[in-house]
Request: fold
Amino acid sequence: MSTSSNPGSGSGFPRVKDDSERNDVSTTRDAPITVHLKTGELSGERVKSTIRTIGDLGGIFRDEKARQVFDSNAIVYRVQAFFPVGEGVEGGLFWGTTFIEPGMVGDEYFMTKGHYHSNRGRGEYYMTVRGSGALILMDESRRTVFEPMHPGTLHYIPFHTAHRVANTGESVLAFLACWPSDSGHDYESIAREGFSARLRKVGGIPTLVEES
Ligand code: M6P
Ligand code: ZN
Reply:
């Protein structure tokens, strides 16, 4: 099989033409992505970043007054991701790292918004690289459990399962993720119904407390 070199690749790596249509073997060869295994940091010109601040997380934490005490620009987490195909394309895979700052809102740990996949029949992998935390999983019968996260722990998120991560440690929690490109994010169901339990610090220990 020919491995034709990309024209115009004189200096460094050429830009891919159209990320959303791309489906060939040169996707990462032309524009490599690297993962720094100690920190989780992704690098490469096609890495996209998103930041979630305290101001973006209204309605997520139990203690809304405690959330409002923070500067609304304070960063709770950021996500770096690589989307080799367009969002919603069937058959592709996305890759990302999420970095959650240490902190508490009331007795709840800084955490991600959490979501179901819009396409409920899609699973996901998470793998922790730095810090400590908890992956909170809720199935569609609203049974909620959590898995402790430490460097090296691998977490399989079954399909039909809402997922959210809390940083229970005193340093940044970083985890890698891989999910299908046609998963989508359903935040609305979480906004409407929440998780059936919250991970709260009780007597110094992360504890799942059922919502009353
Ligand atoms: C992981 C993946 C992403 C997700 C991110 C933050 O990197 O699951 O799809 O966006 O965590 O989680 P959330 O979207 O719930 O804020
Ligand atoms: Zn997901």
User: Anything to note?
Assistant: Residues 27-210 form a domain with the Jelly Rolls fold (CATH 2.60.120.10). The first strand starts at residue 34 and ends at 35.
